[in-house]
């Protein structure tokens, strides 16, 4: 509640956090960056292992896709829905025909349209990826079923071949048992 005691607590905890970050860097041989902004808006930063700029650059490179998604989500929250956007565009287009629309309005409208288009494309991509994944799963199931059927067919073919072989052996034994073997006359 007291502003001065809050400031003292902030300083102690900030220093403790910075020390823990340094210890983590030393003990684990890793690069650590910590950025703290006080309630007054003052920025405190600490890095160990590498420079702050290098760590932030590496973070940015690894999380580019996440940052784009977050940026896109923020833009969609601040803009109109597609239906409202289309109505606005139609209204602004009619105004533009009268030549009394400002350049700023057109630029704003263009940005809203780009954002809506980007959101639409992102959603389309998500749906397409889900569809591809679904088809891949179905393909996997069908391949497994196909393999099971192929194994069953192989077993059936082998069984029939064995049955036919058994029939042939039995018929040869029967044939051999009824007729004595023929001897060839050696001397005549």
UniProtKB/TrEMBL annotation:
Residues covered by the MADS-box domain: 1-50
GO terms for biological process, alphabetical: regulation of flower development
GO cellular component: nucleus
Coiled-coil ranges per UniProt: none
Keyword check for Nucleus: yes
Domain K-box: 56-159
Gene Ontology molecular functions: DNA binding; DNA-binding transcription factor activity; protein dimerization activity
A Pfam family the protein falls into: SRF-TF
InterPro entries given in the database record: MADS-box/MEF2_TF, TF_Kbox, TF_MADSbox, TF_MADSbox_sf
Subcellular location(s) per record: Nucleus
Chief location category: nucleus
UniProtKB keywords: DNA-binding, Nucleus, Transcription, Transcription regulation
Protein name listed in UniProt: Protein MADS AFFECTING FLOWERING 5
Organism: Noccaea caerulescens (Alpine penny-cress)
């Amino acid at each position: 509640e007291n502003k001065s005691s809050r400031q003292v607590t902030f300083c102690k905890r900030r220093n403790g956090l910075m020390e823990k970050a340094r210890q983590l860097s030393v003990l684990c041989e890793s690069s650590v960056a910590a950025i703290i902004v006080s309630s007054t808006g003052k920025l405190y930063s600490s890095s160990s292992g590498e420079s702050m700029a290098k760590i932030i650059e590496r973070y940015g490179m690894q999380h580019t896709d996440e940052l784009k998604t977050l940026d896109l989500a923020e833009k969609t929250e601040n803009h109109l829905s597609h239906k409202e956007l289309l109505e606005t565009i139609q209204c602004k287009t009619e105004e533009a025909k009268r030549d009394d629309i400002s350049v700023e309005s057109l630029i704003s409208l263009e940005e809203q349209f780009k954002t809506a288009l980007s959101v639409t494309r992102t959603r389309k991509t998500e749906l397409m990826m889900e569809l591809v994944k679904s088809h891949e799963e179905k393909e996997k199931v069908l391949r497994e079923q196909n393999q099971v059927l192929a194994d069953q067919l192989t077993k059936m073919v082998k069984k029939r071949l064995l049955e036919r072989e058994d029939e042939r052996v039995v018929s040869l034994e029967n044939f051999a048992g009824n007729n004595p073997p023929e001897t060839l006359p050696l001397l005549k």
